[in-house]
Amino acid sequence: MTVVNAISRACKYVGGQAALARAVGVPPAFVFQWLNNKRPVPVSRCPAIEQATNGAVTCEELRPDFDWQYLRNSKKVEA
Questions:
Q1: Reduced to 3 states, what is the DSSP secondary structure of residue 54?
Q2: CA–CA separation, 71 and 67 (whole Å)
Q3: Which strand (E) or helix (H) includes residue 39?
Q4: Which domains does the chain have, with CATH numbers?
Q5: Fewest C-beta atoms under 10 Å: which of 8, 41, 53, 72?
Q6: With left for phi above 0 and alpha for psi between -120 and 50, is residue 78 left, alpha or beta?
Q7: What would the pLDDT profile of 27-73 be if each residue is shown by its tens digit?
């Protein structure tokens, strides 16, 4: 599964590129750039995409280069 495929699935899940942009608070042009591999999805937007898709698209799929396990474990410790 590629990052572009994950973003495409997220768009389909929420109803399109514009809907995903609204859901995560970015201009639609950003989503277009993510889909066309022109810029990476910012780490700060990944949790919002995961939430908007009810977990159908995960942070790990969007940014496999980031240590999400560390972040997820640190949130459990703080809770």
A1: coil
A2: 7
A3: none
A4: 3-78 (1.10.260.40)
A5: 72
A6: alpha
A7: 999 999 999 999 999 999 999 999 999 999 999 999 999 988 877 78
